[in-house]
Prior knowledge:
alpha+beta; 4 helices
Amino acid sequence: MAQAKLxxxxxxxxxxxxIDGVAHEGRREDAKxxxxxxxxxxxxxPKMWGPSIIGFGSYHYKYDSGREGDMARTGFSPRKAxxxxxxxxxxCNPATEAKMTKLREKLGKHRxxxxxxxxxxxxxVDMDVLEDMIRVDLAxxxxxxxx
Length: 147
């Protein structure tokens, strides 16, 4: 059975040009800050994944169903309504989830999806806590999917 081509694939689009094209000025400025935070915390270069995700590193996954693919190890997207951070490890590992829960209690204004952290503005969160969350998530991803 052929697998469908994933829409969210790594590509050679220009990260800076993408950020410069974000219509909302506040979201654009927050994206520039997050770009530097992720570069500092991960030590990895940014790459575009699909049309709107800025990813750092990659990993290969394979589900029991046989479906498999590649995805950004971590990253973010300056969406219209929110700045979205993709923190994959925080929902699939109990120890990591417990660490993330404690950090979220100190983070500030946010909401959570399954593997996404939604932020309105960076000014409403503790940036040190946010960096710690990225580190915790990346440590889990590095353990589960060694580079």
